[in-house]
Amino acid sequence: PPEPGDTMTPPTNPLTHWRRLDEARRLTLAIVGCLAFALVLAALVWVEAGRYSDEAAAETDRARQWEVQRARVEALAGGPAASIDDLVRGFDVAPLADDPRAGELADRAVALASGAATTDTWETLAADVAAEAEAAGSAVPAERGAFVVRLRAGAVVASAVFVAAVWLLIVPLIGSISRTRRRLETARREELTRNRVRDLASRVAEGLDVAETEEEARAVVSRALDRMSSRPVEVLLADSSRAHLERAVTHPRLGGPGCDVSSPWGCPAVRRARTMIYARSDDLDACPHLDQRPDGACSAVCVPLTFLGDALGVLHQVGPVAEPPDPVEVETLETIASETAVRLGTMRKIARIELQARLDPVTGLPNLRATREELARVLLEPGDAIVALIAPEDFGELVAAGDAAVDRALRLMANAVNEVAFDAFAGRLRGGQVVIVWRGVDPHLARSRCRALAASLAGDSARTGREVTVAWAVVRAGGHDDVDALVAHLHDRLGRDTRREQGAGRAEDADDADQRYPAAGHATTDTAPAGAEATGGRSGAG
Fold first, then answer.
1. Where are the alpha helices (DSSP H) in 360-434?
2. Given CB 3.0 to 4.6 Å as the disulfide criterion, which of 177, 412, 454, 530 pairs with 539?
3. In terms of domains, do 262 and 376 share one?
C-alpha cells in the first residue's frame, strides 16, 4: 500500500517500478551533480575571498608601516641622531623587510646618521619615505573590506542554497526511491507467492488428473490442504440429488470446522457464487452457520465449488477471531477449490453421461448393450447365478396400439421388476423383454419372485385398467458357452412353457434338467443344457 502522504498510485507492473526507480536514480544523480558543482563553486569563492582578504590585510599593514617610517624620518630630520636605530629596525620588520625600496632607504638613513652622505639630506629622505607611504596607502582600495564581506556572504548563501536543495530535492527523492524499492520487494514477494500458487494449482491439477475415482481425488485434496493450510479446513460436497451437503474432506492434522449447513443453497457463498470472507463470526453480516460454534467466535472464509454453473459444494476454513486469512492464502484456497470443482465436476458429468448411455430411456433399466455385458460377466464368474427372462405377451398388439401404449406397458413392467429385483441386476433385451440376474439366490426364491412380479402386474392391470400380461422363465447361468446361448435357452424355455400353458392352462416348476412337464393330457420332457436348471410360467390379467 502507498505510504501516508504518498499520492502516487503504485503501479502494479514490476517493470513500471523498475523504470521509475531507474528514472529516479538518474534524476538524483543529476541533481547531486549540480548541487555538488554549486558547493564546489561556493567553496572556491570562500577560499578566494579569504586569499583576497589576506592580501588586503598585508597591503594595509604595509601602508601603515610606511606611515610609521615617515613619521620617524621626519622626527630624525629635526631631532637627535639617537633615534636612528628605531628607523632602521622599522625598515627591517615585516611587511617592509622584503621590500628593496625599504632597504635602500634604510641604507641612506644610516649614511646620513654617520655623516657619510655628502649630497643626501634628511629632508630628501623624508620626502622619499612620504612618497612611498602615499604609494602604499593608495594601493589599498577603500571598498576592499566590503567586497570581502560580500564574497563570504555569497559563499554562505550558496551553502544555504545547497542545504535547502538537498533537503527539498534529494531527501524526497531518496524517500521516493526507498518506497519504490519497497514496492519492488513487495511485488517480488507477491510474484513469488503467485508462482507458488500457480505451482500448487499445476500440481493439484496433475494429481487430480491421475485420480480415477472421487475417493482418490479427495485424497489429493486432503494432501493439498495439509501442505497449504495452517487452519482447520473442510470440503463439503453435494450428493447426487444436489439437495444435501456431505463432509467429504477435512484437514488431516487439524480437522474440519464442523459447519452445520445441510444443503448447497443453504450456504451464502454458494448462493452468491463468490468467495465470502468473515473477520468475525458474531458480526451482523456474518454467515448464520458460523454462530454458536463450540470454539467460540472465529474468522472464516468460504469458497464455493462450481462447475459449469452447477454448485458442487463449498470449501470452508476458520481461524482466530478478527484474523481472516491474507489474500495469498485466500487465493490458494480458491485455487484448490477451483481445481477440485473442475475434476469432480468432470468425473460426475462423465459418470452421468456413461450412465445415461447405459440406461434405457423408457424404463430406466440398463439397455441391451449393458445387459449383454452383465450376462457376459455372469458367465465368467465361478458361481452359478440365476437368470430370469420376463417378456410381455401380445407385444405385437401393444406395438399396433402405438408408442404410448408400449411405453406405458414397459414402465409398468420396469416398476414391477424393480420391486422384486432390488438385490439383483435387471436390464432390457429386445422387444420389451427384461432379464434379471440373481447371485447367491436359491432358484425357488427366484421363481417365487417372478410369480410375485406377475401378480403385481396383474394387480396393476386390474387397478388401472391397463392390461399387461407377462411370461417368465428361470434358468441357471452355468453351462452356457456364451451370451447368445444363454439368451437362446431363455427364449426356448419361455416358448415351450407358453405353449404348454396354452395347452394345459397351467405351468409347473421344474427343479432340474430331467423335470417332466405335463401338458395337454400328455407328458413333455424339456431338456436344458448341461448344468442348467430351467422353469417357466405365464401370468397376466385381462
1. 368-380, 395-401, 403-420
2. 454
3. no
Question: CA 344, 349, 353 angle in degrees (round to 5)?
Answer: 150
pLDDT at 139: 62
Residue 370 CB neighbours (<10 A): 19
Q: 359-362 long-range CB contacts below 8 Å, 24 or more apart?
A: 360/427, 360/428, 362/407, 362/410, 362/411, 362/414
- Do 351 and 423 belong together in one domain? no
Rounded distance, CA 450 to CA 416, Å?
10
CATH number at residue 333: 3.30.450.40
Render pLDDT for 318-352 as a digit per residue (tens, 0 to 9).
999 999 999 889 999 999 999 999 999 999 999 88
Range of the domain at 118: 1-204
β partners of residue 392: 470
Whether residue 363 is contained in a domain is answered as: no
Q: Which of 94-103, 141-150, 161-170, 317-326 bottoms out in mean pLDDT, i.e. has the lowest?
A: 141-150
Distance CA 450, CA 421 (A): 9
- 256 grid coordinates: 474440519
Q: DSSP code of 428? A: E
Residue range 63-74: mean pLDDT, rounded: 74
Q: Look up the CATH number of the domain holding residue 475.
A: 3.30.70.270
Round to whole Å and give the CA distance between 233 and 226.
9
For residues 456 and 378, the answer to whether their CB atoms sit within 8 Å is no
pTM exceeds 0.90: no
- Range in 143-147, 330-334, 423-427 with the lowest mean pLDDT: 143-147
Residues 79, 106 within the same domain: yes
Cβ neighbours of 354 (radius 10 Å) = 11
Instruction: Give me the mean pLDDT over the 347-375 stretch.
Output: 90
pLDDT tier at 528 (50, 70, 90 boundaries)?
Answer: very low
pLDDT in tens, 481-491: 899 999 999 98
Pair 154, 32 in one domain: yes
Instruction: Classify burial at 45, counting beta carbons within 10 Å of its beta carbon; exposed 0-12, middle 13-18, buried 19 or more.
Output: middle
Residue written as grid cell 527523492:
173
* Nearest in space to 258 (alpha carbons), one of 219, 300, 214: 300
Q: Residue 111, Cβ neighbours under 10 Å: how many? A: 14
Q: What is the pLDDT of residue 146?
A: 67
User: Which residues lie closer than 8 Å to 489 by C-beta, 6 or more apart?
Assistant: 475, 480, 528, 529, 532, 534
Last residue of a domain, one of 315, 335, 357: 357
Identify the pLDDT of residue 525: 28
Burial 136-160 (b: 16+ CB within 10 A, else e): beeebeeebeeebeebeeebeebee
Strand (E) or helix (H) holding 179: helix 171-209
Q: What is the chain's length?
A: 542
- Which of 45-54, 111-120, 303-312, 508-517 reaches the highest mean pLDDT? 303-312
Q: Which three cell numbers stand for residue 386?
A: 440365476
**Number of separate domains in the chain:** 3
CA atoms lying within 13 Å on the CB side of residue 38: 18
How far does the chain reach from its first CA to its final CA, in angstroms? 85
